[in-house]
Structure formats: C-alpha cells, structure tokens
UniProtKB/TrEMBL annotation:
Residues 22-155, 169-307 form the UspA domain. SUPFAM superfamilies: Adenine nucleotide alpha hydrolases-like. Coiled coil: none annotated. Belongs to the universal stress protein A family. Residues 1-29 are annotated as: Disordered. This is Universal stress protein. Residues 1-22 have a biased composition (Basic and acidic residues). Pfam families: Usp. Transmembrane segments: none annotated. It comes from the Bacteria.
Length: 309
C-alpha cells in the first residue's frame, strides 16, 4: 500500500526541487517516539528539499494459541498507523512530498531494505532509562549497527528536536581526514541545509608508556606538543569541508578526555549530535561502538550515527 501527497508551489514546480532517487525515510509504528522521529524527518526533508517516505513494518504471523486472530483487522491497524502519520505531517509540513507504505516484513529487515534510495533513516528512541542497553530497543540498535546510511535517533517530547535557532551541529572527529570523511560530510551537509554553525570536537588521551615511539613523538614535537598536534589534525580534517562550505561557521574544540565524555559535556547547546560508527561483531552480534552507544543513550538532543569505512 502506497499513498502520496504531492504538494507543489503555485508555479507547479514546488518550493525546492528534490534530487531524483533520494529521500528521507522515517520508521513509524504509532508510538510517540516514532511520531517525534517522523516529525523531525519531515523538517529535515524540508530543509534539504527532499521527499519523505514513512515506513511501517507489519507481517502476518499467526500465534500458536487458541485465540481468534483477525488478519484483516490487524492489517487495517497497520494501514491506519501510516495513514494517520501521513495526514498529521501533511498538515504540518505542506511543502514536503510525502509517501507512506506498510512493508510486509519484520522491522529490522524492512527498515534496512529502504536504504538503497535513502539519504538517511530516522527512527524513534525511548531516551533515558535505567537499563542503557534497552533504551533504543533491540530493533533500533540492530538497524543502526547494520545500516549503510546515516541513522538519526529522536526521542519523544525532546525539546531539542524543535531545532533552537542558536543550536549548533556538534560533530565528533577522530583519526585522519579519510577516517572522518563520512561523518564530516553529513555534518556539513546538515549545517548547510539548516543555516546552522558547526562545532567540531576532537578528544584525545595521553598515550600509554607502550604507545610512545620516536616517530610518533617526533610528529608531536614538530607540531609543538601534543595539544598543537591534535589541533593540527582537526584543522587538516576540516580543511576540505570548510573549502566546500565556506559560509558554514565552524568552531574547533580539542579537549583531553574520552570521546564519549567530551562529546556529551559539549552537547548542551547542540540541536544535533553527529558521530561515526564502525560496527564490530561480538559474541551477541554487531555492536555500534562505545562512542555511538554513549551518545545515543545519554545525549540531550537527536543523534545521527554515520557509518564509516
């Protein structure tokens, strides 16, 4: 089932022409978290001049129980989820071309299957809680770990999702320019679309005794010390993006500490936190990494997790 609201400007061309073959996808299931995510996605679609697709996963799976199970009734409920979300978003964001559909699959493969044409995927998050491993829900963590596109997690009733005009796009930078290319691209594209400023954060730690080597210390000495070395690394990583987006204001922030800790302590004024993710496979499946995990569960704003490498 697919329904589309194709809204254009008075000249019939629309306010902003969407790039062909690209869209923003939002997963909806009727929960307050997913509806907040869909609203965030609609605003981002308007910023970027892209269409929005609402996706709800539903597959008929009869239970092995002596109960009356009405497949048609369940299907109508699934259709109502996307129909209601589309109607509400259409009223609030009339400039955005919106489509919606029910995907005949379970949530994780259904959402991952939307990524071929997606600029990003936006999902809901339950926010803070006592058991950190379950705040996103198992589906959300699996999607983020396996996604080939950026995934944005948005909480219900998150004041930061309203995009305060003074809010920065906060982005974590690690390694060299190639290591952080994807995460910086996403951050600069987002800041450019929103007319926002960027705060680029690079956290560093004192090397252990066994990490010292003549070659590494020579590089630090040439830069004037460990702090200037880290500052130089951040400048070099930002240089090509500053050249590509010269009108985007950028603040450089280098601080001693763990990456997760530094990002969280500087996220108070952010409208979006952007972090990179290299998925690692552990005994219990794919993991999203400690920095992304900390950001998703503790940051006071929506979080974009960008796959790298």
């Amino acid at each position: 089932m697919t329904r589309e609201a194709d809204r254009t400007g008075e000249d019939g061309t629309g306010d902003r022409e969407a790039r062909p073959g690209r869209e923003i996808v939002a997963g909806v299931d009727g929960s307050p978290e997913s509806l907040a995510a869909a609203d965030w996605a609609a605003r981002e679609a308007e910023h970027r001049g892209l269409p929005l697709r609402l996706a709800h996963a539903w597959r008929w799976e009869p239970l092995d129980l002596p109960l009356v199970q009405d497949r048609e009734a369940q299907e109508r409920v699934a259709e109502e989820v996307v129909r209601t979300a589309e109607a509400e978003l259409t009223a609030r964001h009339p400039k955005v071309a919106i489509t919606s559909e029910v995907l005949p699959d379970t949530p994780v493969p259904a959402l991952l299957g939307t990524l071929d044409e997606a600029e990003m995927l936006v999902i809901g998050s339950r926010g803070h809680g006592a058991v950190a491993g379950f705040l996103l829900g198992s589906y959300g963590q699996q999607v983020i770990a396996a996604s080939t596109r950026p995934v944005v997690a948005v909480r219900a009733h998150d004041d930061r999702a309203a995009e305060p005009p003074s809010g920065e796009i906060l982005v974590g930078q690690q390694g060299g320019p190639e290591d952080s290319e994807a995460v910086l691209r996403f951050a600069f594209e987002t800041a450019d679309a929103r007319g926002a400023a960027i705060r680029a954060v690079r956290a560093w730690s004192l090397p252990s005794l066994y990490a010292y080597s003549p070659a590494s210390m020579r590089l630090a000495d040439d830069a004037g010390g460990l702090v200037p070395f880290e500052e130089k690394a951040l400048r070099e990583a930002l240089a090509p993006w500053r050249e590509r987006y010269p009108h985007v204001p950028v603040t450089e922030h280098v601080e001693l500490g763990s990456a997760g800790q530094v990002l969280l302590t500087t996220s108070g004024a952010a409208q979006l936190l952007v972090v990179g993710r290299r998925a690692k496979r552990g005994a219990l499946g794919q993991r999203i990494g400690s920095v992304a995990h900390a950001a998703l569960h503790l940051a006071p704003c929506p979080v974009a997790v960008v796959p790298q490498g």
